[in-house]
Records
---
Amino acid sequence: MTSPEQRTRRLPVGRRFDLRATAMFFALAALGLGLVGLVVRMAFGVAEHRPAWAVLLLLGVAMALVLGRRGRSGFSTARLARRTTHALEQATATALDALDAERPAGPVPAPRSGAGLPTMAAPAAEATTVEVPPMEVPTTEVTAVAFPDHDTLSPDEFEQAIADLCVRDGCAEVEVVGGAGDLGADVLAVAPDGRRLVIQCKRYGEDNKVGSEELQRFGGTCFTVHEADVAILVTSSDFTAPAADYAEQCGIVCVDQWRLRAWSEGTGPEPWAAEPCAEPELPDRASW
């Protein structure tokens, strides 16, 4: 038994698969979609500022599509894409040209704050006078320096009291060195003007005066041994006349109980600023 022969259906010649044409179709379709997206984006931008131009743009695209289809009866995807792209480009260019023509040439000045608003005059502030009570300035009472009773001090306390006076009046490097083997120096200091001071202290009673022998012993060591610029002998008593003459010849400053009291109270000069054995101008000693 013979089977019937099956005929193979041939594809039409015009509809054969063409890889090149298919690739071209997708490329044009992608290009068309990209242009459509760009145009839509620009259309939204135009619509924000000029809605009328957006309507005209859409009408132009629609008319281009209709005219393109009526012009030729045959349908071609490539031809439709080209016509659509060309129509979109013309509509976009027209809209952009219209926006550029309406845009001002120069920069738009920023509006000033409060421009166009009615201004109201601020009411004048009434001047008020405020009476300030006078400020009370506290008064500082100046108290006199208490005069120590040197007669009640021990020899060591007397030396320390003299050192304290030197510190009070601005001397530096004040040191109490009195004791055994001091070679006549009880207090060493440097005056504010830089001179080296060598001071010997004699805590005597009123009936016991410093004699010339004590001045000679002090004069033999104060300059040569201690290298004093100013040699001072301070006593709580007084000096004999020969002792005062010797001190004046040697340049030793003598400070008796009257000059010591004036120095302590701040009413007399410091010993390093006084003349050797010069008698200071003091008030009546009977009033002390």
---
Amino acid sequence: MNYSHVFHAGNFADIVKHAALLALLGRLQADPAPLTVIDTHGGRGLYDLDAPEARRSAEAESGIARLVEDPAPPEAVGRLKTAVLAASKAAGGRRYPGSPLLVAQRLRPQDGLTVFEFNPREAEILTVSLAGAGAVFVETADGYDGAVRSLPPEGQALVLIDPPYERGDDYDRCLATLQAITRLCPRAAIMIWLPIKDLETFDAFVRRAEEIRPVRIAEVRLRPLLDPMRMNGCALVLAAAPEGLDLDLAAICEWTASRLGEGGRARLWGSA
């Protein structure tokens, strides 16, 4: 599969992932210590929701467009709405900011961001999107390996592992990266995004993650898991998350399941 996120930008899964990322970032930055953020699969940073690809899938219309229309979303979701409206205003059209741009705009002077993007063309666009953002580095390289070698020797660290799951080994490499980071930098906060298509694949991944270290799961199902060829929901697998994050995750998952789902449900579970 030749994956391009431009077809999917601003869908329900982006809302869960990016609202949680903003909440996680805010809680980590309550500590004055320097924070290094590492993004394994950066994409292009900013997406045009009126591009032909986005219009063809129409995923943003049942995702971020619904959030923008909500006059009073929970604070944890409202932060993303504010960021999307600001990006759209700045561009003069409907835009959706990806994780690198959301983080880059919130870096403090003592913080840094390293983003990996394997596709050279996407990496070029990403570099332009992040121009002038401060201590931001874009590498055209494998993000799994890059995340491990970019861990800081001191200070705080946040690693976002967010592959498109187009390769057969993406699940295995996510787990291998979780294990390597745990060994080298156990203090690092880690957030892995997962699609939920069928229960067997999802449960197997979580079981293997729990063998590596305690993890917390934030899960959103839009609908019953009846069609394994369809993304029926998504989940975040978190390690070393800061105290209080559960409050944000619950609000994000419940809003998404109730407002965007078809008989959807949300839950938080796990031992971390």
---
Amino acid sequence: MTSRGRRDHRGGPGPLEGRVAVVTGAARGLGQGLAYALSRHGARVALVGLEGERLTRLAADLPGAAHWTVDVTDADELAVVAEAVRRTLGTPSVAVANAGVALGGPLVDCDSDAWRRVIEVNVVGSALTARCFLPDLLRTRGYYLQVASMAALAPAPLLTAYCASKAGAEAFAHALRAEVLHRGVGVGIAYLNWADTALIREADQTAVFRELRTHLPWPASVIHDPAPYVRAMVRGIERRSAHIYAPPWLRGVYAARTLLPPVVAHRSQRVLAARGDAPLPPTGLLGPGGTAAGPARTAGPHDPCLRPGE
């Protein structure tokens, strides 16, 4: 291959050949990697996010791609984007709710607006993404992928907003699957551990995340190359998988999830008590994506994403 965006030639068209796939949070990290991978598998990718300059460069590198700068928590803006995707690329048959932000720190010290913003982007933004593109997925009998996290399976102190948001996004996806499966729409959830992205690299410079990861047991403490995560998500999209686990050992965490809260609480009690009064300053919204997300925006009083008769 001479271009990162060029499609793989694998002895015939694959299930993504010629499909339109929407990826939110596509400007960097896992979203960017997934956009490249979907394009290599023959999809026309709609790149959605807040970092317009990065999206412009990415779209120029991917055959048939187009990009839109939008806040996924704004129903009006996202509805306009959904219509523009239909006109520009065609009817989507894949939608990936990848956009997300995080912050760390003791709940009592976290800025309330930043804490709320994590919930809005990770839960409300995911739900609006699904709602705005669901008419398309119903027409194409398509597939919606919710990017979750190990944080949806195991509680983590100092990450109350992130854990709550990922657990909420997971529950939303489970409920949505039950609602639309009989209409031919597949819904999957990707459970991912730490990936080597700009967000995690910045987080690791903070006292909160150093404290958190230092006391996680192996292999949960390990930061992984995001490339295998992207490959796992592409396989899951092609197979319309209900669950995607990356790394694969997260399947065991899923099976043991009912046992984890008391174990985590007991371990955290010892670790945090040993710190005494040593401060753990809250981080604020992390990474370049968190900077782009900025303060919360006020959504409109109505949701235009479902048009009359759909």
